[in-house]
Amino acid sequence: MEVVRTPRRTKRRVWISAAIGVVILGLLACVGLSVYVGWQLTHKPREPVTMTPKDYGMAYESATFTSKDGKTALEGWIIPPKGAAKMTVIFAHGYAGNRIQKNVPFLPLAKRLVDDGYRVILFDFRASGESGGDMITIGVKEKDDLLGVIDYAKRHYREPVALYGVSMGAATSILAAAEDSDVRGVIADSPFSDLESYLRANMPVWTHLPDVPFTYLILAIVPALADLDLGVSSPIHAVDRVAPRPILFIHSKDDRSIPYKESVKLYNTHPHAFQLWLTDKADHVKSFSLYSDEYVERVSAFLRSLVKTSS
């Protein structure tokens, strides 16, 4: 019986083809997983709005604002003080949060400010809470949302406007203040200094995936698919247009989500105009919970200085 032998060259060709197929399948799997993870990061489940200012003894009115894009409806509340308002303070929540920002939390802080004579506006960014929109953009388009709320406040009230934001909302507040010179000052609790560089350094923390290749794939694919320019969300490139207006940076040295050096970096751009308060032992945006009295004292002192300058 004659034995038919497969030529060595044919075998090698089969193995090379198989190896190429495995590599292609692996790349397709990585790309598919990157698209899926990117979608999950920009389409988080909405946190329900489970309480109102009434739960803290505050009178309020519901309001619908319109983003600067002219089409995205934003739901929120306006909480007036009992007398004439010293200033309107607009609160900006963090990534995947909403207007009550439970981990801070916003409503107890709002009550302290309202009792001290400030009007407070709380609202949900796009794709959060009860607002319109279907994609979280981590400051890129949220900046337009905040600018829309600022426009509403300027149209309806005579007092000056200040911004208070946490995490993504802190970064967004800096971006919005850079574009609207009527904003008198910003309180920024735990911002990042530049979205793209922050994501490059911290994407594995968010996704629990290896840095290579997933960080590079996600940052290449998602902006292209979603038509986003991550460079827009860069407070470090916006602070020059805020100064000499003041910014109070608040950040915990034990923040495990956004390193406190992000705030230090922003503060160091204009230390003569900006203020920096670093806390200890607090996790991300938890300084108010841990140091509530000192937190309110520092925020109130900052706002009083804005009112005095405005007068």
From TrEMBL:
Q: Which Gene Ontology terms cover its molecular function? A: hydrolase activity
> What is the protein name given in its UniProt record?
Alpha/beta hydrolase
One family name in Pfam for this protein? Hydrolase_4
Q: Does the keyword Cell wall biogenesis/degradation apply?
A: no
* Domain of life per record: Bacteria
Q: Where is the Serine aminopeptidase S33 domain?
A: 85-203
So where does this one cross the membrane? 14-39
